């Protein structure tokens, strides 16, 4: 009993330390965003702003087109998430229900492909997009985001499909439902939490992505929010710290909002009430 209690306390302590490790940078970012230039130059910084101000936010919007960049990021992220889920869902079902050697090889390739560095694939992708006339365009960036998010999205959905008992589909077939009706009426509703979680992953990955957007988008009017944030850093590497922190804080809000809205759907039981006793 003592060993079990001690192990549980250790787990909670490690979890608390991890949460603190993740939260401190964000809290410091928020603190900087509301500090005046005088406080930012202080030799003895404090966690809480002594004179909170919104000047950094006003200056950030005056210096850079944050709303336009956020709109570009939103279009790219939503497009990538929707297309990735539409492609990955039927493929994941086939790979999960038909466990052939080809399906196993495809699953292994999906996992291995995540180890490829971005620099390794950027040149082939650039050449392909150049031949298609999609350089410096949001559709081209969405295509790249879909390609990058698809392997992991497929791997996630395969696990969700395997968690759905095949007996439910067999019971629907006995009741006279065809394959398409079974997929739409039985399997798809049970996969909803997994599909939402996968779409969330694809959305946040595209929303926060910087390298592809930096290389593929050259026109300022088409640049995404992560690229525009770099404009707060001068040519000599000196950052306009207050406006940069304010803009970075605003850039994190969509991800936090998405998590807050669909948290229950992700953590809820996927098969609650699916099986009759």
Walkthrough of the structure:
It is built from twelve helices and no strands. By secondary structure, it is mainly α. The longest helix is centred in the N-terminal third of the chain and has 32 residues, at 2-33.
User: Based on DSSP secondary structure assignment, what is the total number of beta strands?
Assistant: 0
Order of helices and strands: HHHHHHHHHHHH
Instruction: Compute the separation of the termini in Å.
Output: 35 Å
Tell me about the largest β-sheet.
none
Mean pLDDT: 82
Q: How large is the count of helical segments?
A: 12
Q: What is the CA-based Rg, rounded?
A: 23 Å
Q: Low-confidence parts, pLDDT < 50 over ≥5 residues?
A: 268-277
> Which percent band covers the strand fraction?
under 5%
Measured as a percent range, the helix fraction is: over 70%
| Global structural class | mainly alpha
Assign an overall shape: globular
């Amino acid at each position: 009993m003592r060993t079990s209690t001690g192990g549980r306390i250790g787990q909670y302590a490690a979890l608390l330390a991890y949460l603190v490790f993740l939260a401190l940078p964000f809290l410091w970012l928020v603190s900087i965003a509301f500090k005046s230039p005088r406080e930012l130059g202080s030799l003895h910084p404090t966690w809480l702003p002594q004179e909170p101000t919104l000047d950094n936010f006003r200056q950030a919007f005056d210096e850079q087109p944050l709303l336009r960049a956020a709109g570009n990021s939103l279009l790219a992220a939503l497009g990538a998430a929707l297309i990735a889920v539409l492609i990955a869902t039927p493929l994941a079902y086939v790979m999960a229900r038909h466990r052939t050697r080809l399906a196993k090889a495809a699953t292994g390739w999906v996992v291995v492909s995540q180890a490829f560095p971005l620099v390794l694939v950027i040149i082939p992708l650039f050449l392909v997009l150049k031949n298609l006339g999609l350089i410096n365009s949001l559709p081209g960036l969405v295509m790249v985001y879909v390609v990058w998010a698809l392997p992991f999205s497929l791997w996630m959905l395969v696990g969700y499909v395997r968690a759905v008992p095949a007996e439910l589909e067999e019971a629907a077939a006995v009741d006279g439902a065809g394959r398409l009706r079974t997929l739409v009426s039985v399997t798809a509703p049970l996969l909803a939490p997994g599909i939402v979680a996968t779409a969330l992953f694809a959305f946040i990955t595209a929303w926060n992505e910087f390298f592809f957007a930096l290389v593929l988008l050259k026109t300022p009017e088409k640049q995404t929010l992560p690229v525009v944030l770099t404009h707060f850093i001068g040519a000599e590497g000196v950052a306009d710290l207050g406006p940069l922190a304010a803009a970075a804080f605003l850039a994190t809000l969509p991800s936090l909002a998405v998590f807050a809205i669909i948290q229950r759907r992700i953590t809820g039981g996927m098969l609650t009430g699916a099986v009759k006793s």
